[in-house]
Amino acid sequence: MQSSARIHSYNLFGETAELADVLHVETIRARSELHDWELRPHRHARLHQVLILTSGGGAADIDGNEHRLSPPCLINVPRGVVHGFRFGKSTTGWVITLTSDFLDQHLIPGEGVRAMLDLPAVLLLPEDLQDMAQQLFSENSRRDFGRAQMLRGLALSVTAAAARAIAANQDSASQSSASPLFARFEALVERDFRLRRPLAEYAGALAVSPTHLNRVAQQATGQAASALVNARVLREARRLLIYTNLTAAQIAYELGFNDPSHFSRVFAKGTGMPPRKFRQQLVGPA
Questions:
Q1: What pTM was estimated for this model as a whole?
Q2: What is the layout of strands, in order, in the sheet containing 58-62?
Q3: Which domains does the chain have, with CATH numbers?
Q4: For 234, which of 63, 108, 270, 273 could close a Cys bridge (C-beta 3.0–4.6 Å)?
């Protein structure tokens, strides 16, 4: 668990510099060597990353879940997801970083690709994805005519292949056929979940009734819309308990609760234990 009071949020894989292009491609070695092959847990507010590991290995911490990395493998890291890595010094592969604006512009919600990319995943690497990543890296290193168009096309191919692999790994019953309305609802929840807005306000912002919004959410996920809002709050609460030293009361205020005891009851109902016990289980006995 990190000692800082906030989860570090970076623009580019451990840096605070702005992403100069719509995408960035580099080798695992190029970044990892600068940090002794360990990147501590952090997150990106407006960046999506796809890691392609071809040899070596290590471990990934993704939203508090430990994953052993056995190349060849694919790691999908959506925006906002806390992640950290420990790589073996012989690890090879690439880190592909895309702006959320790029994905928002080119991926139509109703087609399902974006829904799959919003799921963190560590999977066996599809054979064709390694060749795509190599081509993307090579094109990114050159300044040939039509470079931007080639990069956009290759990046979309990589994301589609990653989404296909994630979808194949999902239980067919859990795959969401999310409508554009549901995608807009998800975006609003991501933006406003700290404000503790009632469902009626979300529905009003989307120009639908709460009943209709619940129906759309049920069709997409099997859950009520209010349950999805609550789940997003609980996910952030778990992240803050795992990766920061904020007290339960501080986390409550961070997430828009006026009363820390109310937050503790909501957390206990959603997770089966109060925040303090949840954190104690992470650190073990004193």
A1: 0.72
A2: 38-42, 83-87, 58-62, 65-69
A3: 23-174 (2.60.120.280), 180-283 (1.10.10.60)
A4: 270
